[in-house]
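Dear colleagues,

As part of the handover before I leave the project, I'm documenting each prediction I ran so the next person doesn't have to rerun anything. This entry is a single chain, and its sequence is reproduced below.
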Amino acid sequence: MPITVKAFATVRDVIGMNGVAKIEVREEITVEELLRRLSKELGERFNELVYDPRKNSLAPGVRILVNGRDIDFLKGLSTTLKEGDTVAIIPPIAGG
């Protein structure tokens, strides 16, 4: 079953493919399981910018949205993903 991952700003470059990736999973997974999978596939740069698998935590300021809803208002990293869901990874953005 496909899950779409959309990455923005600096994370977009790490994911490649114009910041949009289709991830095939066999069954429902959690946001945490998806991030662990991306961590393995994308390596250290992803870990620095988004998710530290050793600490099981997001990098400071990173927001994860599932179908437009912040996971902080769902079940956090335990939020279950289903077929057709879209996960947005938004790093902190500085500017002026």
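The beta strands are 2-7, 20-24, 29-30, 51-52, 57-58, 63-66, 69-70, 80-81, 86-90. Residues 31-42 form the longest helix (12 residues).

All the best with the project,
I.
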